[in-house]
Amino acid sequence: MKKVIALSLVAVISILNADNTEVLDSISIVGDTSSHANNIIDTKKIETTTTISNPLDLLNNVAGVSVTQGSTFGLYEYATQVNMRGFNKSQIAFLVDGVPLGSSSTAGGAPINRFVETENLASVSVHQGSGSLSTPSAAALGGSINYVTALPQKDTAIKVSNTTGSFNSQRNFARIDTGEFAKDSRAYLSISETTTEKWKNEGELKREHLDAKILSRLADMDIQLNISYNNRQDHDYLDISKADYEKYGRDYGLNTNWAFLPSSASDADKSEQTAHNAYNADGWQNARTDTLISLNLSDEIGDSTLKLTPYYHDQSGTGNWAPNYVLNADGSKDTTRQSFRQSEYYTQRFGATLNWNMDIGNHELLAGVWGESGSRQNKRYWYYLKDQNSGLVYDKTPYFENFNRTFDTTSMMVYLQTKLHFFDDNLIVDLGAKSQITTVTYTDNQNASNSQPAKDSSAPFLPQFGLTYKLNNSSQVYMSYAMNYAQLPDSIYTGTTYDPNIKNEESTNIDLGYRFQTKDTALTATIYYVDYSNKIENITAGTGDIFEADTSYVANVGGVESKGLEISALYMLNKAWKVSGNYTFTDSKYIDDVNGNALKDKYIPFIPVHMLNLAIDYVNNGYIFGLNAKFNKKIYGTRDNSDKIPNYTLANAYIGYKKSLKQSVLKDISILMSINNLLDEDYLATAGAFGDTAGTSTYFVGTPRTTTLTVSGTF
Known about the structure:
The chain is 5% helix and 55% strand. The chain starts with a helix and ends with a strand. The protein is mainly β. It is built from four helices and 38 strands. A hairpin with a 3-residue loop joins strand 24 and strand 25.
């Protein structure tokens, strides 16, 4: 494989002896001039990222953001986590073209990688502390991340690409741009297919994706229709204890052989057989199908702009496992027999955002509303295996319905904001507030007595204040204050105990920062403080079964205080060479003891206290090259900080070439080789489950070195 990639790279560069000069933007991941800390990832960075990777990989170049992944190219969702200023991916607002994705949970949620193709991305904007008042989210205690997809091209074009990589990875992509097919109208359609094997044990991931976009103008109205379809299947990775990792190494995980026994085997042997087969890789599988449709409408009305974005999201999926027992009618377990268990997920959401912006002299007035209604259904069924000696062949009629529940949710948000411009725009002051309410009705379709009436999560008044002050032509200072809240999670209804008095999580975010920019230098520095109150955690008491608990409930467990420093810098050595880097200090700690454990002043698990990222990039005459390394230090794996995760450094590299061709059917051709985890670091990447004390947490192990080669051309 390595020889094929090397020879292909040499061959293509030899054929394309070119003179194609590209000018690198002086700023690529340093933010805009708003009063909130932010960073923008532009097309120059996106084009150097392997197309087979998770789009979350782009965030690892941003100060304040930690993305951890424990699967081949980060495509297995359960082993992927995002942390930003002490908040995880479920507490951050993810959007695509302004459309909220809601929960980032793998089970019933909408992780970003299902809706984005790297080839179709235009930019990613990251607000670390708090999103703007218009951000449509009912769970964003922290910041927001908006992925903006590219517009259709003005000229007709066909782009095709193929990516080959480690672990038998293959990706094929094709996009057709119509050009202007009617007055002020153009469109594109893209399709892709990705397959990759797990980097350890057996199993694979398959992904089929379609994107379509139509852009048009009717009178004074801009119209943009967006369609995204994604179908994926994958095999699970096993999250393991630190002790097992240290004893068996990073390859330890699910077994790959199904145990067979003669019919005369003893009950003890059969129990050993089912226990072994419960960890067989074939039994651990997931499937999800998602469709997202949205419409962006924008119209200029006098001195004001009105934008309307209705959207619809549909999802269905399953999650499989083969438990090492059959459930008897009396509730006891027969461990001499094996079951097949399947969870089913169904989600439908529809909503709309409406944003209005009006200039009043030198000032601006902004207002808007967001509304969403959705239904999520979660079922789980148990099936008999027809013959546990013949593998996972099961009777299609379930013998037990574990649960069947529906969550009907409506959310509403309104906001009002003014931007005041003073002293020739040297001082800009933002003042505003929003009001939100989310109502959830829980229906237990098995037992109506467990159902709960509509329960509101509300925040009547969430103010925001910010200002930027221009010191001179190259520098400015900024500050912001924002209050956020999160709706109560669905899990409050599904435990063994329900607390009707549970409170909403709330946060207060304060930023103070400085920006500096010249034609060859950029710098941002931010200090921040976050007060996170009424933190909600799942409390369980285990039985020894990895998928069961004697008791489980959700409770407010006090608060978290986070404070830190984020620095991003970039310097153009000349037109070809650029150096950049960022440093993040995150001090995120519990401020209360939790569930009888002395956790006050303990660090939140799996958030590095120190992160340092350094990069060098080169672009000249079509040739590109880059090398970066990110150092992660002082990471804890348990709530009481008794498990400490070893520090680790991940290095990545890319090299490529792009040639524009004139007077040819082929408009351009490019090649990109990427190497992730260049030094083959062996490390614990992300958490499977947090425990309170040493030995109780589980972890996904980081992926070894991976290499990909992408060849693409445009006709």
